[in-house]
């Protein structure tokens, strides 16, 4: 009796924590991420899962910041549909937006 849903939940939690770790400035970050990636890769192999080849994203940091600025303007004008489209476009390029009380932050998906 193997708890597949539970095991997959742990994998997703590990990936989520790695994504958040990418934002920090910890000195050991590269080592922690390498260890986590190796562990995740080993566990996914057990389930027959594979990683997609790295996405070739041609979107630069400046383009991301510009799109976030445009999205903010749409939100101020209450054009939420247009703002959501920008969020979706960024998500397609592997960019995660987080709206906080201090503003919008972003990071690349792991």
Notes on the protein architecture:
- It is a single chain.
- With 110 residues, the chain is mainly alpha-helical.
- Helix content is 59%, strand content 11%.
- It has helices at residues 4-21, 29-46, 61-76, 80-92, and strands at 95-100, 103-108.
- It has a two-stranded antiparallel ribbon with strand order 1-2.
- α1 (4-21) runs antiparallel to α2 (29-46) and α3 packs antiparallel against α4 (80-92).
- The longest helix has 18 residues, at 4-21.
- It starts with a helix and ends with a strand.
- The model has no long low-confidence stretch (mean pLDDT 82).
Structural shape: elongated
Number of helices: 4
Overall radius of gyration: 17 Å
Question: Structural class of the helices, strands and pairings?
Answer: mainly alpha
Low-confidence stretches: none
Number of strands: 2
What is the average per-residue confidence, as pLDDT, rounded to a whole number? 82
Residue share in helices? 55-70%
Q: How would you spell out the order of helices and strands?
A: HHHHEE
Largest sheet, in brief, is:
2 strands, antiparallel
Biggest sheet strand order reads: 1-2
**First CA to last CA: what distance?**
31 Å
The share of residues in extended strands comes to 5-15%
